[in-house]
Amino acid sequence: MKNPVPQAASLLLEKLLLLVHIRPLPAGSDRETPAPAPGYYDTSCFKRGDLLEVPRTLFIHFGIYLGENRVAHLMPDILPAITGDRRQIQQVVTNKRLILGVIARTASVRVDTVEDFAYGGSILVNHMDRLFEDQVLGSEEAAHRAEKLVGTTAYSLLWNNCEHFVTYCRYGAPVSFQTEKFCETVKMIIRDQRSVLASVLVGLASIVCLGVAPSTTLPTIFIPFFLWMAG
Fold first, then answer.
1. Is 162 among the residues known to form the active site?
2. What total number of domains does the chain contain?
3. Tens digit of pLDDT for each residue in 27-69?
4. What's this model's pTM, rounded to 2 decimal places?
5. Domain residue limits at 116
6. Which whole-number Å values give the CA distances from 185 to 161, 163, 178, 198, 229, in the listed order?
7. Which GO biological process categories is it annotated with (predicted)?
8. Of 69, 79, 83, 105, which residue is least crowded by CB atoms under 10 Å?
């Protein structure tokens, strides 16, 4: 029988970090913010197989450039799990689709334009190469790996996110440094008894994100979660 504690911790962290993926909507609008028009980014400096990074509020979104203004990237999305209509699936992922995809742990490796991928954010090129030194695969190999993975896949913030996808494609090993850093930060907050207020805030945020009452959450999730993180 699998230990439920790591699973509960994984679900908790995914709930807590879900909001960092959601694109903000303009005031007074109930629709998605339109992506920049084609040509917004200068793609002449991009090469096939390049690893593209788009810094967001707390986390970074990653993709592999395939050439001709196309980027392969992993996105949580519910549609591939409920329909085979490629025209619907290929439309830009909305917040609702993304949230339901995270809840259902469903995603897709999709190919979008640079504009739709970056969504107005700044783009860094091959910034992670310095962390892997001589592990960088050939550009064509990286692009080929990305193309082979296009389609529906499982999603997990901790074990299979957009960073795992690109590091596998370009470096041959699926890792996520930003997830590891976040987990270490949470552990430090919980272990440091001087950060009582911070720990309380983490707990309150967890309750809100989980959408359950404290009386049911503490015995079933928080106590084993704190023990697991402190272990």
1. yes
2. 2
3. 333 445 566 777 789 999 999 999 999 998 777 899 999 999 9
4. 0.70
5. 50-175
6. 19, 18, 11, 11, 11
7. retinol metabolic process; visual perception; vitamin A metabolic process
8. 83
